[in-house]
Structures are given as C-alpha cells and as structure tokens.
Amino acid sequence: MIGTMTRRQGLTAIAAAPFATLATVAPHGEGLDAVARRSGLRFGSALSARTNGASADNPAYAELLRAECGLLVVENEMKWQHLRPAPGAFDFAAFDRIMAWAGEHRMTVRGHNLLWQRRKWMPAWLEKYDFGARPARSASEILIDHITTVTRRYGERIASYDVVNEAVTPETGALEETALSRALGGTEATLDLAFRTAHAEAPHAELVYNDYMSWEPGNAAHRAGVLRLLEGFRRRGVPVHALGVQSHLVTAGPDTGSSARAYERDWRHFLDAVTGMGYRLLITELDVRDNGLPVDPVARDRGVADYARRYLDVMFDYPQLRDVVAWGMCDRFSWIGPFEPRPDKAARRPCPYDADYRAKPLRTAIAQALAAAPRRPA
Ligand code: XIL
Fold it and tell me: What b/e readout covers 51-64, taking b as 16+ CB neighbours within 10 angstroms?
C-alpha cells in the first residue's frame, strides 16, 4: 500500500497519527478485553497486513489493538487467495509478520480460515485446476496438504480455527460447491475431510464452522441450512466444536429496539438448537451496517449502538459463548464501505471507532454489554 501512496498522502497519514495517542483512543481507562475478562469473555478484532491500514504497521491502529484487544484475527492473509499464489506454493510472509507482532504483544491469534467454501474466494488457479485421472484423490491431497502445512507451521500458537467458512447458500440452505469439492466427491466429504485433518494435525485446537446466517428477517433458509450441516457433522462424528456467528449486523430503520425484539424469538430458537447439539458459540466478525438510519452521524451512531447492544445481550445469555471479535476497530478501514456503500453515499460507520480513531457509542455499547454479561465459569 505504501508503495502506491504519493509522498503527500504518506505525510498526511503520518501527520494524522499523533491525533490518536492512547489518551484519545482509550479514554475509558479499561480496554474492552479487560472488561470482557471480568465476565469470563474475551474481546478482539480483525487486523490486516496493509501498511498504514488496519494493521500493526499503522501506529494509531496498533495502539487501538493493544488498548482494546486480547484476541486477533487476520482479516485476509490466511485465506487461500493470499497464502496460495500457485499450486504447491505457499506465501506466509504477511501472516508471519502479524504472528510475530501478536507474539511480541502477547496477543492470541485465531486462524481464519482453512477452507472458504465459495468459488469466488478460492484462488483462480484452483478453480481451473486439472485434477487428472483420479480427481478425488488429487483433490484430497491438495486439501490435506494445505491444512497440514498451515496448522503445523503455527502449532499451539493458534488455538482456534475457522476450519470451514460459509458453506451454505443463504437463499436456499443448500451446500456450496467449488471445483475442489466437486473433484473430491461432494461438499459434505470435503468439509468432513477439512475438519478431520485439522483435528488430526491440531488436536489442541478449537475447530469452528463459521457463517453469516444472522438474526434479521430473510435468513431463515440460511439458518435452516446451517442447522442441517451441524446435525450432519454430529451424525457423522466429525470433530466440530463451535459455530462462529459472524454477526455482520444490519439495522432496518430508526426503531432499532422493536426490530431487535421481533428478531429475538427465532434467533433464540436457532441458538438453542445449535447449543442443544453441544456446539459452543463465538462472535467472529462483529460490525453493523447502518441501513435505514438517518445520515446524521449522531442519530446513526445511536441507532447502531442500541441495536448492537440488544443483539449482544441476547448472545451473552448463552454461556457457551466466550469470544467476541469485531471485524475491524475503526471505520476508516472497514470492508463494509467498499463492499456495500450506503445509497446516500454517506461514509459507513460500522465499527467501535470512527475514521479519526475516536470512540463511538458502539464502543460504549459493547463495553456495557460485556460488563453486564452473566459471568462465565472459569
Ligand atoms: C472480507 C474482508 O474484510 C475483505 O477485506 C475481503 O476483501 C473479503 O473478505 N465473511 C468473512 C470474512 O468470513 O473473511 C470476510 O472478510 C467478510 C465476510
């Protein structure tokens, strides 16, 4: 990133940094992870390797992570598209740098992810790969090699993995296919192999199925598909320990309280079914799309915070949940803006801190929900 910056942009970025001294980024004394720990929870965030982005190379962002987080997830650099430039090749440089920084600051890293069951997010070479005369064997070897290489490299330094990401089609609840899963003999066989390999190589690790079925209306088919998948894992004895609930929340309008109340019943049924099968829960990618809220940042931030608070209160009712990860701490770097701009083009405000590293009401709402959470047994 820095290579593509003009000198002027570089200077502006540096000039902005002193703005975010610890006094301004953590005016609340206690960081979110410290608050979480008192309730037996942990709090963390995604970070990236982009220089001057949401990364440890950006002093302001690094300070935010150190002040607020005990847990880190690397936003992109463990994904196949980043680790696997070509068949047989691995490029660990970016991920290793983040691991080194996390180690220096005694922060725990979760792995995201070992298999993203979506064509769009797997490397182009793999989608076009010639699996040869024995495709099932060749595809299995590729998957096993990938998971084995990654998990062995980091050993016990990574204690929790999103082994499989997003295998269910939201509109239908069916399982997604990729070139790899087709060659291997089907999606179920592929996912089972991913979890079994991860378990064999990292028996210490928590193995998570991660997806974005959410509590808002329109997600019923997605939730049903995820339940079927989780039931299947249990039936087949596949080692899956937890459901990662991404929690990319979406507000529907100014009356965030009554929407939250309306969603709560079906959502609890879903969580009851998941935990009833013995799965733990994690919030893996928390952020809020401020849809339907007025452009005025004060009103918008209030709506986002209230909505998230109601959601977190429901989630924290489940003692099976111990980890909360935000998908970025600072609006300036959030993926939501480019991914789904607001129709009125106003900059998105999905994170606990604004674009100038100032704490927002969402930060307070998270702190209050963490503090109010029923205490988990040690
Ligand atoms: C997103 C990243 O934030 C973007 O930078 C990238 O371009 C695409 O992926 N669900 C997931 C995450 O599991 O990996 C996604 O992260 C967001 C949705």
Answer: ebbbbbbbebbbbb
Indicate the top mutation candidate among 213, 327, 331 to test ligand 1's pocket, ranked by most ligand atoms within 8 A of CB: 327
Whole-angstrom CA distances from 331 to 98, 110, 288 are 21, 22, 11
- Tokens matching residue 300: 């918008």
Q: What is the pLDDT of residues 197-230, one digit of tens each?
A: 999 999 999 999 999 999 999 999 999 999 999 9
Residue 136, exposed/middle/buried by CB under 10 A (0-12, 13-18, 19+)?
middle
Alpha-helix residue ranges (DSSP H) falling in 86-186: 93-104, 124-127, 135-154, 179-184
The pTM of this model reads 0.93
Q: Which domains does the chain have, with CATH numbers?
A: 5-372 (3.20.20.80)
Coil, strand, or helix at residue 280?
strand
Residue type, 74: V
The mean predicted confidence, pLDDT, of the chain is 92
246 CB less than 6 Å from ligand 1? yes
Q: Is 45 in the pocket of ligand 1 (CB under 6 A)?
A: no
Task: Give the three-state DSSP class for 91.
Answer: coil
Q: Along the chain (378 residues), what's the average pLDDT of each consecutive run of 10 residues?
A: 32 38 55 97 95 89 96 97 97 96 96 98 97 98 98 98 98 98 98 99 98 96 98 98 98 86 94 98 98 96 97 98 98 96 96 97 98 93
Ligand 1, closest atom to CA 284? 13
Pairing of strands 108-116, 158-165: parallel
| 196, two tokens | 């079994």
- Amino acid in the structure at residue 288: V
Instruction: Indicate whether residue 165 lines ligand 1 (CB < 6 A).
Output: yes
Q: Could you tell me if the CB of 335 is within 6 A of ligand 1? A: yes
| Burial 222-250, CB ≥16 within 10 A → b, else e | bbbbbbebbeebeeeebebbbbbbbbbbb
Nearest atom, ligand 1, residue 328 CA: 3
